[in-house]
Amino acid sequence: MNNQLISKSEFKSKALEYFRQVEASGETVIVTDHGKPTLEVRPYRGRARPPLDILRGSVIRYEKPTDPVGENDWEAAQ
């Protein structure tokens, strides 16, 4: 997903244009103040979403899930 960074002053003068752009494309617009992100404008998504849609994109790919885990990766219970 590409996030578009725009300054507060630019957003103020073209807010409706950015709202329409977010609605049409589904992309996020991030508003900055002195170069620091302060606001995020994104499409509204209702809470009634399938659980897998909520998690989509949040899981890191694991190449070999069936390989044994090394001993150094676990703390032994004593």
Keywords summarizing the entry:
78 residues, alpha+beta, YefM-like fold, 3 helices, 22% strand
Mean pLDDT: 84
Fraction of residues in helix? 25-40%
**Main sheet: strand order:** 1-2-3
CATH class of the domain at 3-56: Alpha Beta
The termini sit apart by 46 Å
Q: Would you spell out the secondary-structure blueprint of this structure?
A:
Blueprint: E1 3-7, H1 8-13, H2 15-25, E2 28-33, E3 36-41, H3 51-55
What does this entry look like structurally?
InterPro entries: YefM-like_sf. It comes from Sulfuricella denitrificans (strain DSM 22764 / NBRC 105220 / skB26). Belongs to the phD/YefM antitoxin family. Keywords: Plasmid. This is Antitoxin. It contains three helices and three strands, in the order βααββα. The protein is α+β, with helices and mostly antiparallel strands and 78 residues long. The protein has helices spanning 8-13, 15-25, 51-55; strands at residues 3-7, 28-33, 36-41. A three-stranded mixed sheet has the order 1-2-3. It has a domain at 3-56: YefM-like fold.
In short:
The chain is α+β, with helices and mostly antiparallel strands and 78 residues long. It contains three helices and three strands.
